[in-house]
Write a structure and sequence with these properties.
The protein starts with 9 loop residues before the first helix and ends in a 12-residue tail after the last helix. The chain has helices at about 10-25, 30-45, 55-70, 80-95, 110-125, 130-150, 175-190, 195-210, 225-240, 245-260, 270-285, 285-300, 320-330. It is built from 13 helices and no strands.
Length: about 350
């Protein structure tokens, strides 16, 4: 499914945000949680524009950009516009000469996909011609990296069409494939050419991960069905415009998610919370009123007094910045301020 990128004044964006929250009957605490969370996130930005994360700064900074843009803050307007601008500059400075964002300690293609997505969404609201040109050049190179990674010879035919964490991986996983498809669709939104064959190959890989016995999706063909991979599979079907041709798979995946709810208290900071929220919101209906809205409710209840969220990864030091960015990404999806979130 291809969306049109529309440039609108921030005042209209904020009005659309208020309407989206009311229209979807979200918990009353969402707006307050987003405002407090964004304030906390802004306080964690370093002088170089990155966000203070104990993990990969490219990944966390990309999530922070998407969270702030999703809350209505653009480089030229909004309380945290300057934060967005400096974060974008940091991402541009981190791109390797060949276009890759996933270099050492940056989580490979996952980080690359997040950075590409963040820059594409920032490009759509950037009013400065010089910055727009620099972002466009960065996106051109980043897109080439994604397409090249998909074309790497795979170890067997089942993996053809997908992506994995390493840019030279001979296998593929559905969660990473969903991340790359989000980036590809965002690139399409801003006018970059994405080969139809690339999307077709990705669609075939996604469908090979479907398990008719459980109704869910496995991370890879013939693998074990999981909640995050089912959310990723459903999201991929939506992004590729395959929900209408495959109603059986969609209905079964929605049922699987509704009967296997995400416990957000154990998942903040992981891709599953964001992906499940996004796919259920895009599908709408029972998917959103069930699994999706439940995640939103839990996220609003979990927020700390300082506006942050707990990072639950056992055995590791808390990374509240990454957790806050991930939580805000999910909470701002219903605002529909980013083209990638529009139904």
């Amino acid at each position: 499914m291809k969306r049109r990128l529309i440039f609108v004044p921030v005042v209209l964006l904020l009005c659309a945000r208020a309407f989206a929250v009311e229209d979807d009957g979200l918990p009353a605490g969402v707006e307050k949680a987003v405002n407090r969370g964004t304030a906390f996130l802004a306080s964690q930005q370093d002088l170089d524009g990155s966000f203070l994360s104990q993990g990969a700064r490219v990944s966390t900074t990309s999530r922070a950009i998407l969270a702030m843009l999703g809350a209505g803050h653009t480089p030229d307007a909004g309380r945290y516009g300057d934060n967005v601008r400096r974060a974008v500059e940091f991402l541009l400075s981190e791109q390797a000469a060949d276009g890759y964002f996933g270099q050492t300690q940056q989580r490979g293609m996952r980080s690359h996909a997040l950075a590409t997505l963040a820059l594409a969404e920032a490009y759509g609201v950037e009013g400065n011609s010089d910055r727009r040109n620099r972002i466009r050049i960065a996106l051109d190179k980043a897109l080439s990296v994604i397409l090249a990674a998909q074309a790497v010879t795979k170890s067997n035919s089942g993996f053809v069409g997908g992506w994995n964490g390493d840019r030279n991986a001979a296998d593929s996983t559905l969660p990473v494939t969903a991340a790359e498809l989000l980036a590809l669709c965002a690139c399409q939104d801003v006018g970059l050419p994405v080969p139809a064959e690339s999307l077709q190959l990705a669609g075939r890989f996604v469908l090979r991960c479907y398990d008719p016995q459980t109704g869910g999706f496995a991370p890879a063909p013939d693998g074990q069905v999981q909640v995050p991979s089912t959310g990723a599979g459903l999201l991929c079907l939506h992004l590729l415009g395959l929900t209408a041709p495959h109603p059986i798979e969609v209905d079964a995946a929605v049922k699987y998610l509704n009967t296997h709810p995400i416990d957000a208290s154990r998942s903040v900071g992981y891709a599953s919370t964001y992906v499940v929220t996004l796919c259920t919101y895009e599908i709408g209906g029972g998917a959103w009123s069930g699994a999706g809205r439940a995640v939103i409710q839990r996220l609003t209840q979990m927020q700390e007094k300082d506006g942050s969220w707990p990072q639950p990864r056992s055995g590791a030091a808390p990374d509240r910045t990454a957790a806050a960015a991930a939580a805000l990404q999910a909470l701002t999806i219903p605002y529909q301020l980013l083209p990638i979130y529009q139904r």
